[in-house]
TrEMBL record:
This is Putative polygalacturonase. The chain crosses the membrane at residues 21-37, 128-147. It is found in: Secreted, Cell wall. Keywords: Cell wall, Membrane, Secreted, Transmembrane, Transmembrane helix. It comes from Cucumis melo var. makuwa. It comes from the Eukaryota.
Length: 156
C-alpha cells in the first residue's frame, strides 16, 4: 500500500467553485484596464497628438552652407511633369562633383514635377527639394533600345 501513495503530497485536489473563478476573472480584467490606460513610459519622445510636421526637414540639423549652390534649371531641367530631366540631373551632379573637397555643393530642385531616370549621387553633395518639388521616376527604360537583339536559336 505504501507503494500506491505518491512521495509528494500537496493535499487534496482543489475543485474551484464558479464564484472563485469569477472573482479571479474580474481581478484580471481590472488589472488589464489599469495597465491599458497608463501613459507611455517616455511621453517626451512622442510629439503632442495635434502636432504635424510639415516636412521631414525638422528631423535634420540646420542646413550647412555649401561652397556652390545651383538649381537644376541652370542645367536645362524643366519641371512640367512630362519632360525627361535625366541628362540635366547627370550634368548637374557631374559638374558639382568637383566641389566635393572644396566645401561641398548643393543642387536645388524648385517646385514642380521632375521626371527623371536613374542618376548617381556623390560625396559632399546635397540634393535639396523645395516645398512642392517632386521627383518622378521614369517608367520607360531607354537602355532597352541600346541592346542588340539576342540571336535567334533554332533547333533542327
Amino acid at each position: 500500500m505504501d507503494s500506491d501513495k505518491s512521495k509528494f503530497y500537496f493535499g487534496p485536489p482543489i475543485n474551484p467553485s464558479c464564484s472563485s473563478l469569477l472573482l479571479l476573472f474580474i481581478f484580471l480584467a481590472i488589472l488589464t484596464f489599469q495597465i491599458a490606460t497608463r501613459t507611455p513610459p517616455f511621453p517626451f519622445w512622442l510629439p503632442p497628438s495635434d502636432f504635424q510636421l510639415p516636412t521631414c526637414s525638422a528631423f535634420f540639423r540646420p542646413d550647412v552652407t555649401a561652397a556652390v549652390v545651383m538649381s537644376i534649371t541652370d542645367f536645362g531641367g524643366v519641371g512640367d511633369g512630362k519632360t525627361s530631366n535625366t541628362e540635366a540631373f547627370r550634368k548637374a551632379i557631374q559638374y558639382m562633383r568637383r566641389f566635393g573637397d572644396k566645401g561641398g555643393s548643393k543642387l536645388t530642385v524648385p517646385k514642380g514635377s521632375w521626371v527623371t531616370g536613374s542618376f548617381n549621387l556623390t560625396s559632399n553633395f546635397t540634393l535639396f527639394l523645395q516645398r512642392g518639388a517632386l521627383i518622378l521616376a521614369s517608367q520607360v527604360s531607354l537602355f532597352l533600345f541600346f541592346y542588340p537583339k539576342p540571336p535567334k536559336i533554332t533547333y533542327g
